[in-house]
Amino acid sequence: MGKGNRSFMGFDLKVVLMVSVALNVVLISRVLYKEDDESEIGGGVCLESGEAQVSRRRTGFDGDSSGTDVLDGGAVIDLDHGNPTMYEEYWKQMGDKTTVVIPGWQFISYFSDIKNVCWFLEPEFAKQAIRLHSLVGNAVTQDRYIVVGTGSSQLYQAVLYALTPTDSPGPMSVVSAAPFYSSYPLMTDYLKSGLHRWAGDAYNFSTDEPYIELVTSPNNPDGSIRQAVVNGDKGILVHDLAYYWPQYTPISHQADEDVMLFTISKSTGHAGTRIGWALVKDPEIAKKMTKFIEINTIGVSKDSQLRAARILQAVSDDYDSSGNAKKNEQFFEYSYNVMVKRWNELRAAVDKSQIFSLPKFPPGTCTFSGQTFEPQPAFAWVKCEQETVDDCESFFRGHNILTRGGKHFGVSPKYVRISMLDSNNKFKIFTERLSSMKF
C-alpha cells in the first residue's frame, strides 16, 4: 500500500506539473495577444518622426529582413514611413565597394577641419557630395557652404534657428503649402523656443512681418513640383530637395537657392546612416546653423560621414568608365527602373480596384539621363473616392495596411500617403491586396 501511495503521489505531481506548464503557456499567450490588440488601437505608443506611432511586435515575413508587423494573426503591411529598404538589393550587389574599415585610433577628435565654417564636416564627405551634385546636375555647389547634419531633420531645426532673429518681439511664422510634410509642424514647435512658430498652410497665409516658407520639391507627400506660394517682401525661403534625384523626377535644372537641404536616406536609401547636408549661400547663416548643431550634438558622427562618403563615391565611380569596368547596372538606372515598375504596378492595382485615385503628373525631360518620363515619387498620394469613406487611413487599416492620413499633411482625411520605397515583399503584397479592395 505504501508503494502504491508513492506511485499515486508521483502521478499527481506529474499531473500538477503538466497543468502548471499548460496554464503558464495559456497566460503568456493571452498577454501577447492582449498586447498586440492594444497596439492596434494605440495601446503602445512610441515617438517616431515627431508623430505618435503604434508600437507593434515584429516578426520576419517571407524573407523580408526588415520584418512585417503582425496583428490578430494577419499580415499587416506598414507603409506609413518612407523606409527605403527597396535599395538593399542593389547595395548587396555592390559587395565591398562601400565597405569602410575604421581603426579604433582614427577619428577620435571632435574636429574635422577647423578652417571650415562647418568645422565638423569631413572633407571627404564634402568632396563626394559636390561630385555627385556635379554628376547629376541637380544643384549648384559653387560658392556654397556645406553644413552636415544628423539627417535633414537636424538641419531643418538648425536653419530655423539660423534664420530667426533673437531680438524679435514675437516668434517668426513658418509656413508651407498644403499638403505639407507632416513633421514640419511638429519639428517647428517641438522645442517651443519662442523664436518661431508653425503658422500653417502657405495658401492661407498673409503678413507684413518676416516669415519663413518651406518649399519641398518634389513635394512630400504628393510628389508635385513646388514653387514659393506667399511671395511676400519679407519672406525667407528654405528649399527641401530631399527627393530631387533622377529616380524620382526628371532633373530639369540646377537648383540655385539660398538654402537647399538634402539627405542620403532618400538619395541612396541609407536612412540608418543619418546624414544630411545643406548647401547655403550666406556664410553667416551657415555659421549659425553650425553653432546650433554644435550646441545640439557637438558635431556629426565622423563614422557616418565616412560611410556616406564611400557610398556617394561608389555611385559616382560607376558613371566613370574606369570605375565600372564590369558594366554593372548603375545606381540611378537601377533605382529608376524599380520606380517605373512599382508605379506601373500601383496604377494597375488602382485601376482594377476602381475605388481610389492617384495624381497625374506631366512628363518632363531629364537633363541627367536624357529620358522623358513622368515623375514617379517616393510616396503615393492616394484618395478614397467613395463618398461613404471619410477616413481613408482607417479604411486601409481595416485591410491591415498602415498609411499616413491626410490630416497629418493639412488636408482632407480622404487622402493617405503610402511609401513606395519599402521591401519588394511588402510592396507585392500591398498591390495584390489593393487591387482586390472593395468598399
Would you kindly provide a written description of the structure presented here, covering whatever features stand out?
The chain has a 7-stranded mixed beta sheet with strand order 6-12-11-10-9-7-8. Strands 3-4-5-17 form a 4-stranded mixed beta sheet. With 439 residues, it is of the alpha/beta class. Strand 4 (64-71) and strand 5 form a beta hairpin. The chain has 11 helices and 19 strands. The protein has helices at residues 2-40, 88-93, 123-136, 151-163, 183-189, 264-267, 283-297, 302-317, 331-353, 392-398, 424-435, and strands at residues 45-48, 51-54, 58-61, 64-71, 74-78, 145-149, 172-176, 196-201, 211-216, 235-240, 259-263, 276-280, 356-357, 364-365, 372-373, 379-384, 401-402, 404-405, 415-419.
What are the key terms here?
439 residues, globular, 11 helices, seven-stranded mixed sheet, four-stranded mixed sheet, disordered N terminus, alpha/beta
CA-atom Rg in angstroms: 26 Å
Secondary structure class reads alpha/beta
Order of helices and strands: HEEEEEHHEHEHEEEEHEHHHEEEEHEEEH
Q: How many E strands?
A: 19
Uncertain runs are 1-11, 15-19, 25-73
| Principal-axes shape call | globular
Oligomer: single chain
Indicate the proportion of strand residues.
Answer: 15-25%
Output the number of helix runs: 11
Question: What is the percent of helical residues?
Answer: 25-40%
Largest sheet: 7 strands, mixed
Give the mean pLDDT: 86
Biggest sheet: strands side by side, in what order?
6-12-11-10-9-7-8
CA-CA gap between termini:
72 Å
